[in-house]
Structures are given as structure tokens and as C-alpha cells.
Specification:
With about 70 residues, this protein is mostly helical. It has one domain. About 50% of the residues lie in helices and about 0% in strands. The chain contains two helices and no strands. Helix 1 crosses helix 2. The protein is elongated and about 70 Å long. It starts with 9 loop residues before the first helix and ends in a 19-residue tail after the last helix.
Length: about 70
Amino acid sequence: MAQVTVTLDANLAIDVMMLSGTRNPQDAVELVLRDYLARGRRTGTRTGEAADGDRLTAERPAAQEG
């Protein structure tokens, strides 16, 4: 897997470490990013994708009288 180096503010890194409960800033940021991506996938699964918009129509079926 490719490695990427990102520069962060020290206070931001410390906050992320405290929230994630890790002692290594790299591990903390990785955990936060993985959680963010997982939440996005769960949300997409629950709400549908943009391509699912064609299944929704503005027209309502006519009410049956009887």
C-alpha cells in the first residue's frame, strides 16, 4: 500500500490522539479516517446513491375511487 505524508497542526494531532485513545499520531489519524469512510459507506447504503434518484417520481398514482 502506498504511504502518504501529511503535515498537521500539533494541537489537532493531540486532539485526535485523545479522541481515539492512541499514543501514536499516525495511528490516530488512520483510525479517524477509516471510521469516517466506514460511516460514509453505511450512510450511502441506508439512504441510496445519487443514481437511485430515477426511482423516485414526482407523479403520484391516481387514487382509486370506489
